[in-house]
Amino acid sequence: MASSLDEVARQAGVSPATVSRALRGVGRVSEATRARVVSAAAALDYVISPAASSLARGTTGTVGVVVPYVERWFFATLISAAERVLREAGISVLLYNVGDQEGRARFFHELPLRRRVDAVLVLSLPLSASEVDLLRDLAVPVVTVGLDAPGTDCVGIDDHAAATSAMRHLLHLGHRDIAFIGEDTPVPLGFTTPLRRRDAYRDALHEAGIADGALEVPGGFTIDGGERAMTRLLSGHRLPTAVFVASDEMAFGALRALRRAGLRPGRDISLIGFDDHDLADVLDLSTVAQPVLEQGKAAAQILLRRVRGDPDEPSRTVLDTHLVLRGSTAPQREAAGEHD
Amino acid sequence: MASSLDEVARQAGVSPATVSRALRGVGRVSEATRARVVSAAAALDYVISPAASSLARGTTGTVGVVVPYVERWFFATLISAAERVLREAGISVLLYNVGDQEGRARFFHELPLRRRVDAVLVLSLPLSASEVDLLRDLAVPVVTVGLDAPGTDCVGIDDHAAATSAMRHLLHLGHRDIAFIGEDTPVPLGFTTPLRRRDAYRDALHEAGIADGALEVPGGFTIDGGERAMTRLLSGHRLPTAVFVASDEMAFGALRALRRAGLRPGRDISLIGFDDHDLADVLDLSTVAQPVLEQGKAAAQILLRRVRGDPDEPSRTVLDTHLVLRGSTAPQREAAGEHD
DNA sequence: CTGAAAGCGCTTACAG
DNA sequence: CTGAAAGCGCTTACAG
Q: Does the residue A331 lie in any domain?
C-alpha cells in the first residue's frame, strides 16, 4: 500500500507531472490520458501524500479551530456546524481546546498552528491584544465567533439587543427587583459578550427608572458557578423576584439552587437564561435563543472563502436572536417579593 | 518570517544536519554548538515545517479522532479529555465528526485520514466489519472507546454490569413493572453498548421472575427520541411504575414527556438514566455514572504509547461505574401502579 | 561531534 | 497536451 505518484506514472505510462495534473484536474490533460491515469491510480490504490503535496504547494488543506471548552454545549455545537462545512469542502480540522490558563498560555507560546494551517477559526475564545497579534503573525485568515478581534472576520449576535429583550420581558411581567448573574471579572480584550449582556441589564434597569436596584452576581458561565450565584442571591438580604442569567448553563445551576431551596421557578422566582441550550426546553427555562449552528456554519463558510483567496475587507456577520418563553418566567405576584 | 532550517544553519555557522539534530535533541551535538543553534533559531523565529519534517520522517505528529456527534455531552467530554492528553504530548488532533449516514459513508470511502495521521482514536462510533478493515488498512494503531473492534485497543465500561446495577436498584425499590428505553434497531458490528444494556434489562427481569414483563421502546439515544419513547409508554395500555433509560439524554427527554403529562418523576413514576451527564444532577435524575473523562484520557494515553512504538498485544481497559441516586427514583407505592 | 548527499513525494514554471 | 528538471524543507544513514 501507500504507492507513490511515480508508480502511478509508470503504470499509466506518463510522467509524474501529468499524473499530478490529471489527478487534480488542473492544466491541460487529454481525456484519454486522464482516464488512464485515474484507472492506474485506482488500481494501485493511490493516495496522495498530504505532506509532500503540502510541502510543494505551500498550503495545507487544513484549518485550525481554537475553542475554550469543547465539552460545553455551546462550543461543541459551534464546532459541529463548522467542522461539517469544512469537512464537506475537503478541508481537515485541527482542534485546539485551550480553556484553562496554562493550556492557553502554552498554546499561544508554542503556536502549534504555525505552518500547519491555511486559516484559523476562533470560537469565543477571549483574546488579548497580544494574542490577536500572534494570530495575525500566522499570516493566514482568521475568523472569529463571538469576539471583536480587529482584522478578523467576525460572526456573532447583538448581545446588547438580545439581553435587552430578556430584560424587557421581565419588566413587562411586572418585575422590578431583578438580579443579574453573569461575569464581572476583567475579561480579555475583545470578549465583550459578558459585558454587553451586563450593560444591557443595567441599561434596561436604568430605562425603567430602577437603576439603583442593580444586583449583580458573578457566575463564571458554568453550571456550578450559576448555582453558587443563585445561592448567594437566596441568602442575601434582598431577594429578587426575577433573575436574568447570562447563559443557560448558569441558569441550570441556578435552577438547581432553587430546587435545593425548595423554590419553584416561575412561581416563586422568575428566571430567564441565554442561549436556548438543548436542555432549556427540558428544564422549562425561558431564554434568549441564539442561532449557534448558524454561527458555526457562517464562520466556516467565510473561512472557506478566505482560504480560496477572497480579498475583501474583514466582514462582520450579525445573526438574529429571539425570545423563547417557557415556564420559568411568570408575572410578578402582587403581594410577594417585597423584602426591603 | 517562516525562515528555513538552512537559514538557521547559515546563521549559526553549522550544517543543516546539525541544526536538525540540535533542535530535536537527537544524535551527538556539543553543548556549545547546540546553544549557538538554539539562539540562531530563536533570533530568526524559526519554526519547523511540519510538512517537510513529516515527509522526511514518515510520521505526522498527528492523530485522527473520529466521533459520531461532537455536540453531545458524552462525546464532547471524551474529546476534551483525549485532546488534552494529546496536546500536552505535542500531538495535533484532527477531528472527524461523522454521525450522519452520508458523512460517515463518505468518510470511510475517502478516508481522509490516509497518510495524514500516526494513529486513530474512535470514540463510540459504531463500526461495521468492513469499516474496521478499512481502518486497519491505514496501518496505524487504532484505539477505540465503547466498542469491541477486533485488533484495536479498547477502552470502555462493563455495560451489562452497570445496567444491572440500575435494574437492581429499581427492583429493590419494589418495582416490578419496569420499562426500558434504549435502542433495538440493528446496530453495526462491535457497537454493543445498547444491546448490552438491553440484555441486562432482560436478564434482570428474568432473574426477578418477571421475564414476561419486558416492555421495550426505542429512543435513539437522543433527547427527542427519549421524549417520544416516554410518550409512547404513557399512552400504552400498561403504565410501568419505573423506567430504565439507557442514556441520560434520552432520560432528559423522558422527563420532559413526564412534565408535559403532569407527572412527577420519583413520585408518579421512577426513572433512572445512564451516564451521569453534567445536568443529571440539575434534573435530579438517578443514573449510572460512567467515568467519561477517564475513558477519554485512558484512550489517549494508550494511543500515545502506541505512537511511540509500544508493540504489546491489543489491550482492553474496563473502567468502573457506580450508581448515583437522586430524586427520580423512589419506592414503588403499594396501592398505585396496578394497571393490568 | 559534524557535514555532504541522497531522499521523502509532490508541484510548477518552462520548453516543446 | 506532455515531460524534464528544479524545488519545497526537512531527516538520516554514511563518512570522517
A: no
B152 and B163 in a single domain? The answer is no
The residue range of the domain holding A138 is 62-157+292-319
- Using one digit for the tens of pLDDT, what is the confidence trace for B257-310? 999 999 999 999 999 999 999 999 999 999 999 999 999 999 999 999 999 988
* B54 within some domain: no
**Does residue A220 contact residue A248 with C-beta atoms inside 8 Å?**
no
Same domain, B102 and B142: yes
Contact B79 A71 (CB under 8 A): yes
> Cell for B320?
468502573
Q: Is residue B240 within 8 Å of B173, Cβ to Cβ?
A: no
**First-to-final CA distance of chain B:** 78
For A297, residues 6+ apart whose C-beta sits below 8 A from its C-beta are: A81, A82, A84, A85
Any atom of strand C under 7 A from CB of A14?
no
Q: Residue closest to D7, CA→C1'?
A: A56
Please name the residue whose C-alpha is nearest to the C1' of nucleotide D2: A18
Note the pLDDT tens digit of each residue in A162-174: 999 999 999 999 9
Check CB contact of B59 with chain A, cutoff 8 Å: no
Beta strand B322-324 with B270-275: parallel, antiparallel or unpaired? unpaired
**Chain A neighbors of B75, CB-CB under 8 A:** 76
B175 with B242, same domain?
Answer: yes
Residues B192, B262 within the same domain: yes
Q: What integer is the mean pLDDT of A116-127?
A: 93
Ramachandran sector of residue B34 (left: φ over 0; alpha: ψ -120 to 50; beta: rest): alpha
Q: What is the dihedral of CA B155, B157, B159, B161, to 10 degrees?
A: 140
CB interface of B with A, residues 134-173, below 8 Å = 137, 139
**Which residues of chain A are within 8 Å of residue B97 when distances are taken between CB atoms?**
79-80, 83-84, 87
B76 touches chain A (CB under 8 A): yes
H helix runs in chain B, sequence order: 5-12, 16-24, 31-43, 50-57, 73-88, 101-110, 129-137, 159-172, 193-207, 223-234, 248-260, 292-307
Chosen for mutation from A75, A279, A326 (greatest number of chain B CBs closer than 10 Å) is A279
Contact, A250 vs A222, CB < 8 A? yes
User: A265: distance to nearest CA of chain B, Å?
Assistant: 13
CB of B54 less than 8 A from some CB of A: yes
pLDDT digits (tens, 9 = 90+) for B43-83: 999 999 999 999 999 999 999 999 999 999 999 999 999 99
